[in-house]
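Exercise 3.2. Students should predict the tertiary structure of the chain below and write it as structure tokens, then compare their answer with the key that follows.

Predict this chain's 3D structure.
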Amino acid sequence: MADSTAPTRAWLVSGAVVGLAAVAAALATGLWVLTAVPIGLLFGFFLQKGDLCGASAISEVVLFRDRRKLFGLWVAIVTSMVVFAALDLLGLVKLSPKPLTWLNVSIGGVIFGAGTVFAGGCVSGCLYKSGAGNLNSMAALVGIPFGVALIKTGPLTALNKAMRAHVVKAADGGSVTLSSVTGMPYWGLALAIAIATVLFVLFRRRPDRPSGVRVREGPGVMQRLLFRRWRPWQAGLAIGLLGGLAWLSSAASGRNYALGVTGGVHQVGALAFVSQPKHVYRPAPPAPAKTEAASATGTSAKASPPRQKIVWWLVALVTSLTAGALIAAKASGDAALLPRPPGQTMVAFGGGILVGLGAGIAHGCVVGNIISGIGMLSVGTMLFAVFTVLANWAATYLYLMGGWPGSRAAP
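Answer key:
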């Protein structure tokens, strides 16, 4: 009898081969930016397995009274905290919490949160859902770079710069974090939050079966991991652990931050329009010291106009993320190019523009601001999360739950 899982296994093997080949090439050449490929593949695989879209996690709380995905998102945040604290204590990374630019995170959070409902997903959600064949997500994914470009290089650039001038700083001049507010060390807060989360789960846990009843064995562990759907908290745990590897890979490629996808989506779109970009794929060399003559006169070489950066770690991450989601969808039998009503697709495209605009203003999305940002206890990203959640809930009620006549749409 022919093995019906052979095509699926071929997708899994192909993904593993590509990921391992990228790691081998990085080891051989020292181009650590290549390690973004296996990280992106795993990231997309985990997102698809848990169906862990940040927008869905938030909206399903009011739409279906279901908090499982939201808890999965919290698990990703807390796991990231613990991993980041360990890397910081070991001296492997330098924490880079985002600043409290209160105008940006509040206005951007509102636009972003509402946009995710119309788009049917956040930035990472649109990426992995596109890999599974969701046409609305593909349309939204086309709109996202346009929205980011409006604020990064388009007519709203000056407005963005003006808003970013309104920044609240900690006493030492750095970013405002829970550590700077409370005076407690980062690792201590991360550990306390992790312990509180574990205790909450233990006290809330309900036994699924009477004690002493033997459960019949099902598929093996590898069978479940590769071919079955995951619970959201399992995907969140995997994403949090991956965040540590992502940061090490990113730092070795000239970008000192953990997981983030908005910049990558924008830069993939910018590749078609930017003529002379500044390519970033390894750490920048030390800045040259001023000459004695320049120091004496206070002059230096004429500065060249700034060029748009193309951070190849981000580009490789988002492109391989979609491929990883496709592999996971193939393995679970969820990959299908499903037709959608044209009206919904147009709304999704417009929602994508809003998502990109909001993420551009707030300098991040669910991954960069909420998972990685709150993972570093940045107060600015916490404020972004609050406005994102409230705007998402309002848009969910108005658009998906029939808050205005004729507005009901399929989630």
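Discussion points: The first strand starts at residue 278 and ends at 280. Confidence is low (pLDDT under 50) at residues 211-216.
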